Amino acid sequence: MDYNSIINKYYPEDNALRRILLTHSRAVADKALAIAAAHPELPIDTAFVEEAAMLHDIGIVRCNAPGIECFGTEPYICHGRIGAEMLREEGLPRHARVCERHTGAGLTEEDIVSQQLPLPHQSFLPETLEEQLICYADKFFSKTRPDQEKTLEQAERSLAKFGQPGLIRFRHWAELFG
């Protein structure tokens, strides 16, 4: 699978949004791959990790987040679900699962209902090792400063705003992947 052809399909122009997406996604992929290399005891599909990490935020193109050059119509919280739909249309259901499960440290059905998020009422928690790894690596890079890696403490502070369950999941991943 050539992830570049999919990126080129949805981001055909060389513009600020494409550069943000590529810089952020490459940083996430590189961190995830470095973690996988440091843990040969974990059965991680590294080819898949690189592809899925490069595509995990493909849905931002349809969202409204002017601060990161996104001028679509959908709420930003929906970018994972939107990206999943895009990748399923491309015949990539496994990659689509990474898209829809990387927001925060994953979202539970309870999170979606209690916060009245505009998402289907179901669990979007990362389940596979690869889904968890990409979700974890993603927390170290923002799209507003895509070339700067956060410290573990900074990543935890960012997640803590959204409640303890996500922070607990993240800390579990820090133990597993750290």
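(ticket continues) Second input and output from the same batch:
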Amino acid sequence: MNTKRYIACFSLLLLLISCTKQSTPRPLEEGNAVYYWRTDLHLDSTERIFLQQHHINKVYCRYFDVVMSDDGIEPKPNATITFSDKLPEGIELIPTVYITEDCMHQLHYDLAKKIVDRILQMNETNQITNVHEIQIDCDYTSKSRATYYQFLEEVRHHLSSTSHHLSTTIRLHQLSMPVPPVDYGVLMVYNTGDPRKWQERNPILDYRDVYPYLGRLNHYQLPLAAAYPVYQWIRNIHNVRVEHTVEAAEILKVKHAIETERPDLSRAIITYHLETDNINRYKTETYEEIYRH
């Protein structure tokens, strides 16, 4: 091989190695996390103690929702968070955006870029640094899946010039679909039941609703974290106040079943969501069991 050809081949090899390194997915790190789903980031003393006590290293913080405009023409941001407070030192903040499924019934020009730009601008305005990831939350269906996956590809493209990675939520019914183009998913182990059948089962979480999906977990070829519910859902049904709260034993039963089927789902645990009322709803020992790896 002559010198010029050798140099050209060597340069191509370096380029391929460089591209491989740049496209390497972010490892799904072991650790404890919470979702933060309020419209103002403000932590009271109970919440701060909780973060420290349970060694929380990530907060998935909802930045805003994306909903269809009233005229149904294009998506728009809604319920944007304000930042009255900062997370304790050493806890990573992951901007999270919830997108309604009807926004994915067709592609919308520049939606991915607008969302990425808005997140980056919010970080800059509020002096939020050391952000490495963005998460998109959408209850996509077989009807909207292809559009949503193409949208995720566009988000990845617009994140390519930054150090940000991309994750998405995975609902149980989505386990039967091809995996999305993201670094990892968060398996949402809540809102598993039909709210219309509330007299039969708890719509937040019931083992009987999770059981049919357990066999799909081990075949789903995407790194996964698991998110469990610690919230209460209060509804007014026919002028009757109905409270849905999941018993600790039910959460732990489902967690055990999931981890038996797919042991790696014990590595990264998230609770939904951080709030003093939710913290006080369960014993410290229950949270320790939920977060046990």
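Agent notes: Residues 211 and 251 are 13 Å apart (CA to CA). Residues 3-23 form the longest helix (21 residues). Closing as not reproducible unless the customer responds.
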